[in-house]
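Worked example (supplementary).
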Amino acid sequence: MPIAVDAMGGDHAPQSAVEGAVRAAAEDGAAILLVGDRTRVEAELARLGARGRIEIVHAEEVVGMDEPAITPIRKKRRSSLRLCAELVKDGRAQAMVSAGNTGAAMVAAKMVIGTVAGVDRPALAAVVPNPRGRTVLLDVGANIGSKPNHLREFAVMGHFYAQEVLGTPQPRIGILSIGEEEGKGTELTREVFRALKTTGLHFVGNVEGGDVFNGEVDVVVCDGFVGNAVLKSAESLAEMLLTMLREEVAASARGKLGYTLAKPVFDRFRRRVDYSEYGAGPLLGLNGGCFIAHGRSNARAMQSAIRRAVEFSNTRLDRKIRDKIAELHSQEERLLAGGRQGAETG
Amino acid sequence: MPIAVDAMGGDHAPQSAVEGAVRAAAEDGAAILLVGDRTRVEAELARLGARGRIEIVHAEEVVGMDEPAITPIRKKRRSSLRLCAELVKDGRAQAMVSAGNTGAAMVAAKMVIGTVAGVDRPALAAVVPNPRGRTVLLDVGANIGSKPNHLREFAVMGHFYAQEVLGTPQPRIGILSIGEEEGKGTELTREVFRALKTTGLHFVGNVEGGDVFNGEVDVVVCDGFVGNAVLKSAESLAEMLLTMLREEVAASARGKLGYTLAKPVFDRFRRRVDYSEYGAGPLLGLNGGCFIAHGRSNARAMQSAIRRAVEFSNTRLDRKIRDKIAELHSQEERLLAGGRQGAETG
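After joint prediction of all chains, the assembly is encoded as:
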């Protein structure tokens, strides 16, 4: 089953999305539906010499980057974003990929594709590099003002994403907090700490901001407000460091010569840390896949977002998440029933 | 007036603190009081050939890195940390510097040195590099669960720190939020947004995590929970990137040769981004200076923390903060009185 790609989303639409899709089809053998304005998408395909190679699903409307998140639900029901979600809901696509309006993509995916039974709120995850592999950070912006049960759901989703999609055998899960001892942090982190101890997941306790990138844990769980701040500041820092390194190199003849010699090294380094390898985040907890890419994604970033969506579709994440959450709920009910019985007989 | 340096605080105490103090005295002409166990401090000074060059204030006790924050107040009243704060309070030192237990240093400074009139909570600030200069991020961990009036105080403190200590003529101030429009974010950020519009400071609105490092604003204001997560994740990311760059360079002969040629460039780059240039954060809002350095600070990091403390002491930050906060309070009272009068006569 194909991946639905929003051809009209992002700062460089439709060019980046179409080119990314063409590359993913040619190089990775991905099956793709390009969703957007047929004339414009066909023109892009023609420019790339790929006319007729990828199926197009025509969409009359486009959700602008600055329109309200509710737009694809209330106003633009024929938008490419909404149609991508419809294709996943109707079982015509396994997953959708969009570099368009993030808020609108999240709302369309949640309301059209729907959440896994038992999941209250889908969470946007980011997969970031660490020295030994990759870390899943969630939520990075879909939810603010999360309750303890939401963070417990995020832990379940992050666990299965790390295990099934990234191939981490027994993902270590931490709560992002300030101070590592159980009593440290906010009321929210303390309640989540208690809730995660009985999930059967490999919960390691509170972690701090430094653990997002050091590989000490595989999944970091937090409210979307703090996760968003951490992710965006990290992206901006990485960019600043690369800029400063380039400036220093360009400022001297020795630097330039050294750089020329070491260029393959720098290129490999850039690939390891480049956001375009990591920039597409999965919206987890849905009855299907949804990957949200950076607005500024180039063709390479779109290609890797499509790859992530294919990897995701080869797993049955929705079922695993649903079963685990059902198990946690029935465990709670038994505890509550036990508590009531204890109170009655005690 | 001298700077009181906690000789016993930090992972490499007393070695790093004493060596940093010796360098600051010799290279920067800083006047210093080394506070700690006289025998151990003298031994370090002797080892460095600097015996008798720096005055020692003997302290019998040491607050351990894992002891409760209240320790210097309740239990170890003769600790080096507590004595540093006493020296500032008594006007025998202008400012204190410690790489010891951060929580304990903050509590000792707040309770012994005391806050500026009108300031409810001191804030720990971090000064981070951006491509064009430096950004002040606060609070990074002194306060969790901040109220809107606290964030307004942080904005005032950050403004004067940027202006008086870093030399930024008209600091641009942003609130760390998710989404940049006025209505975006949490209840806290929305209330702070309203409160900052009438302060007369150069308030630019909501900013996102990316703006902490891109130089678009000079001061970023947030609650300590999110500020701590952003700061610690950024430090860890910068370290990881440098490690990965070294790994890539070491993996090939070309890389090594290129690196050797470009070494001065790399050294300059490291200096620009090295935490030891930035790692000491001022605790703002006190009747005196307090700089809190990383626990793992080396001698160079301690020397630069002492430099920051000297720069700070050459300004009259406490007075400026006090006057501005008094002005904001009287402005509020006038508004409230106007409102009451309006209600009575209207």
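Two points are worth noting when inspecting this output. The first strand of chain A starts at residue 3 and ends at 6. The first helix of chain A runs from residue 15 to 28.
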